[in-house]
Amino acid sequence: MYLETLRLINFKNYQNIEFKFNEEINCLVGENGVGKTNVLDAIYYLSLAKSSFNTSDNQIIRHGESHFSILGKFQKDDKFFDVKCKSAPNNKKSISINDKEYERIRDHIGSFPVVLISPNDTDIIRGIGENRRKFVDGVIAQIDRDYLNNLLQYNHALKQRNSLLKHTENISQLDHDLIETFDQSLLNTGKQIHAFRRKFIDRFLPVLQRLYSDISDHKEIIEIHYRSDMEDADFEKLLKETLHKDILLNRTSTGIHRDDYLIKIDGYPMKKFASQGQQKSLIVSLKIAQFEIMREESGFKPILLMDDVFDKLDDHRIAKIMNLVAGHTFGQIFVTDARPERTLSIFESIDSGINIYQIHEGKTELLSS
Ligand SMILES: Nc1ncnc2c1ncn2[C@@H]1O[C@H](COP(=O)(O)OP(=O)(O)O)[C@@H](O)[C@H]1O
Ligand SMILES: [Mg+2]
């Protein structure tokens, strides 16, 4: 699978631009702020129907304009697919494939998978539990539709339950039938989500450990410990036990929405003890592990988007990563770098087709191919 052409209209800093990509490595170079990351974000959007920055669609529309469109032509199994994402006047968006609009946008997710490695990914290590849950959820959702449905249902029930808690002063006022309905919904979907996550981590961890060990010359051992209120617990009982507290707090204080994944390096929490280089190596390993699992599941190679990956890494680790990436296990790759000469020297020794695009003032020029 690969993206052959990309056209952006009123998308962030681009008024109207078209790219033609090759099937292997595409590098976007140019000074800070020219719009390299924006191109990767547009490709991410085509795949996942949202920006990687968690921004609203309004922020994506070019300043002073009223709508945006992203058009991509993908090739998959020798067939072409035109994917079009655009904002509509009512603040909604529409996504179509070969001019047929999806009724439910979530049905598109997973059809053209991407894996993004970005500087913000250090949040997965350093940030709050939500960042780690988002990462894991994002991977499972791209390989399993049931998971996303369960998650959406869980979050919906959670929202309704919290709203009921907010409008309840004390237990005597509580609408017991209603809370029972929400609890059953949380229970059904929560159990499945928990099982999915547990199974996923068991499968993911050995792949991650192998990759990290490769990048770090077998120096450090990585572990991930899945932490959940639901581990060895009766969730129904837990919900009942915390009900008084939940009414006081106006929110549901137990459940899989509080799960976390504790990452350790040589036995110590990565969050506190890892160097920047180790963190970056872990991020790359996490994402390549994601890539491997998605490829195993779907049978084809996701598009790999590498945003400013080379920063803060020493030449040795860059060489290790590029060797991993250049092995023929990968499909189409997009790389951004503010230092074109570094990109050129990294790719010099790699025997793959490479296009280098220079971006400047909302326009692009193909430097070499
Ligand atoms: N909605 C928008 N309208 C116009 N310009 C935007 C919008 N969103 C972001 N930009 C511009 O995009 C630029 C950042 O692009 P980015 O892709 O992050 O650059 P880089 O090449 O450093 O990766 C900034 O100059 C910013 O002002
Ligand atoms: Mg950038």
Describe the protein in words.
- The protein has 369 residues and is α/β, with parallel strands linked by helices.
- It has 2 domains: 1-113 and 302-369, 3-Layer(aba) Sandwich (Rossmann fold); 121-300, Glutathione S-transferase Yfyf (Class Pi), Chain A, domain 2 (Up-down Bundle).
- 44% of the residues lie in helices and 24% in strands.
- The chain is built from 12 helices and 15 strands.
- The protein has helices at 36-48, 57-60, 122-126, 129-143, 145-166, 176-215, 235-241, 243-249, 270-273, 276-298, 315-326, 340-348; strands at 2-11, 14-20, 25-29, 69-76, 79-87, 93-97, 100-101, 114-117, 222-227, 260-265, 268-269, 303-307, 333-337, 354-360, 363-368.
- A 6-stranded antiparallel β-sheet has the order 2-1-4-5-6-7, with helices on one face. Strands 8-12-13-3-14-15 form a 6-stranded mixed β-sheet, with helices on both faces.
- α4 (129-143) packs across α5 (145-166), α5 crosses α6 (176-215) and α6 (176-215) crosses α10 (276-298).
- 35% of the residues are buried.
- The mean pLDDT is 92.
- It binds adenosine-5'-diphosphate and magnesium ion (MG).
Could you list some keywords that capture this structure?
globular; 44% helix; alpha/beta; 369 residues; 2 domains; binds magnesium ion; binds adenosine-5'-diphosphate; six-stranded mixed sheet; Glutathione S-transferase Yfyf (Class Pi), Chain A, domain 2; Rossmann fold; six-stranded antiparallel sheet
